[in-house]
Amino acid sequence: MSRSEAPLIDARGIVRHFGHVQALRGADFSVGRGEIVSLIGDNGAGKSTLIRILSGTDRPDDGEIRVNGHPVHFDGPQDARAAGIETVYQDLALAPDLDAAANVFLGRELMKPGLLGRLGVLDKSKMVRQTADAMARLGVTISPSAEVFTLSGGQRQSAAVARAAMWATNAIFMDEPTANLGVAQTKGVLDLIRKVRDAGTAVVIISHNLPQILELADRIVILRLGRTVGQVSASAASVDDLVRAMMSGVLRSQAE
Amino acid sequence: MSNPGEFSGGFTTTNELSPNKPGVENRLGRLRNIFNSQSAALFLVLVALAVFFSVLRPNAFPTIANVMNMATNASILLVLAVGSTFVILTGGIDLSINGVLVFSGVVAGMAMVAVGGDNPGVLLVGLLCGVAAGTAWGVMNGFLVAKARIPPLIVTLGTMGMSLGLALVLTRGVDISDVPESLVLTVGSGRLGGIPILVMITAVIFIVGALVVTFTRFGRYTYAVGSSPEACRRASIDVSAHLIKVYMLAGMLSGLAGYLSLARFATTTLSGHLTDNLQVIAGVVIGGTSLFGGSGGMMGTLIGIIIPVLLLDGFVVLGLPPFWQQVAVGAVLIGAVYFDQLRRNLRNR
User: Which of A110-114, B12-16, B65-69 shows the lowest mean pLDDT across its residues?
Assistant: First the structure.
């Protein structure tokens, strides 16, 4: 990387082992503001472990994570959230019986001002309003009062991404954001991800869909056997390059 | 005095809150979430039953005395049902409520006997001891469900047996009947402005329960935990702590119900509440709260508790064997759960 400023998130030498299994053996990873980075690798390369560590749900055995240049230690997902990092899991983690606004504000409910708020009364209309604003900003056409179980797969994915985008001041991690979606729905979600990026948020995507990654990502980081074996600008790579790098650990355009 | 119009007058509270008139719904827009289409449909069933019995027995069914009698019969069950609605919304179940009720009644009765006398202070001691005993059982249920991760069906089946058994141990199987007379005459059978005090207390509990479940963060978390515990954990909500609070609430209300039962029957009624838990769960489920958790509400519970009471009363008034009520309620319960399953299957497709 030839950037002069410090990356938004910079993880170096991340090591994680589970018993005798070395999931990560010194992985390096960084992402900058307004950038879509895709993390790829064969099964067992350590992608998910790395994302879990960066989103606070797992802790590294060794290595250093810096956010905006400052070293951080995440003891749980709430710490990562406090650092402005949100994660969209593959199962989306939405409560199907609750409406979109309730899901967006789940765990971060707004309370009424004054005595009612101290009695635990929710400010539902304010949450609905803010959800509607955020959805409109991102071009997502979901009613804040629609229960999640009434939404289509693409709409649910959009709701989960919109929720993350609403709270992420720095970065969003996404695990297979378009798995199980149809063509039109996939396009909608990809457009949404670009909008999030254009708003200045760093976006990190784990995916196995290489053609889609080449189309969507700005930069691609390849993990193999727990190590970062290379990174490449998406415009300078082909599917064959990526497959070769994932399998052999050798990337033609390593010099990039 | 005794025409069908008079009868519906007895149910004005339900009527005012019902969503079947668009004008009412607009005016009370913020109350809309209390209702769903299912409780609206149930309300129509309730009205149809009331009209049916009123037309057949205009001189016996739609009288103020009979309505008050039904409201009194529904009272203690409804107090239990408010707690059970919270529990079932989390996807859990509480079978121990009747055991906890009896145990708490025994503790309250023994405490009042121990203090002695008949004055407001004694009544307060009894209330506090009963509610504390119920709360303790609730905390135990919650801890075993949330922390030890034992299925709620088993936990509360176990604590039901334990609480009923301990109530019998404490009393050596003999009902405590020297309940302070002032308690029986006020809370138990007293009236204010023609309305039984028992019904008023129940109404307050119900209204607070309905407001909490609909408008507060506690209520929202109750739905969320029942809908997707995983989503809650990812959102940093302490699911275990919330479950413990919910079971504690159910235990606390069972304790209060034990005190109310003591006041109403002037004895601990050791063997008088054996099927209360099943009646309450049936009522909550008939009212549209899903056994899978996450959906339902307090208005449905009110109607689901009233319908069986109304059926029983109607059968008695008609001179039918009242045992048919159990048959009818059982069938309605199965139907309610079947429709809930259908609804879930449709939406998960």
Answer: B12-16
Q: What is the pLDDT of residues A158-189, one digit of tens each?
A: 999 999 999 998 999 998 888 878 888 888 88
The pTM assigned to this predicted structure is: 0.87
- Strand order from edge to edge, sheet including A62-67: A21-31, A9-18, A62-67, A70-71
**Where does the pLDDT of residue B18 fall: very low under 50, low under 70, confident under 90, or very high at 90 and above?**
very low
CB contact A81 to B (< 8 Å): yes
Task: Tell me the average pLDDT of chain B.
Answer: 88
Q: Is A121 on the interface with B (CB under 8 A)?
A: yes
Q: What ranges do the domains of chain A cover?
A: 1-84+170-256, 94-167
Provide, rounded to the nearest whole percent, the portion of chain B with pLDDT above 70. 88
Testing the interface with B: which of A52, A106, A125 to mutate, by most B Cβ within 10 A? A106
Min Cα–Cα distance to chain B from A243, Å: 33
Go through the domains of chain B in sequence order and give each one's CATH number. Answer: 4-348 (1.10.3470)
ipTM of the complex: 0.87
What contacts B286, CB < 8 A, 6 or more positions away?
B42, B300, B303, B304, B307, B308, B329, B332, B333, B336
Q: For position B348, what pLDDT does the model report? A: 63
Contact B308, B325 (CB under 8 A): yes
Q: Please tell me the distance in Å from A93's CA to the nearest CA on chain B.
A: 4
What are the strands, taking DSSP E only, across chain B? 191-192, 195-196
Q: Does A108 touch chain B if contact means CB atoms closer than 8 Å?
A: yes
CB A63 within 8 A of CB A9: no
- A21: buried, middle or exposed (CB in 10 Å: 19+, 13-18, 0-12)? exposed
CATH number belonging to domain A1-84+170-256: 3.40.50.300
* Interface residue of B217, B230, B344 to substitute, partner A, most A CBs within 10 Å: B217
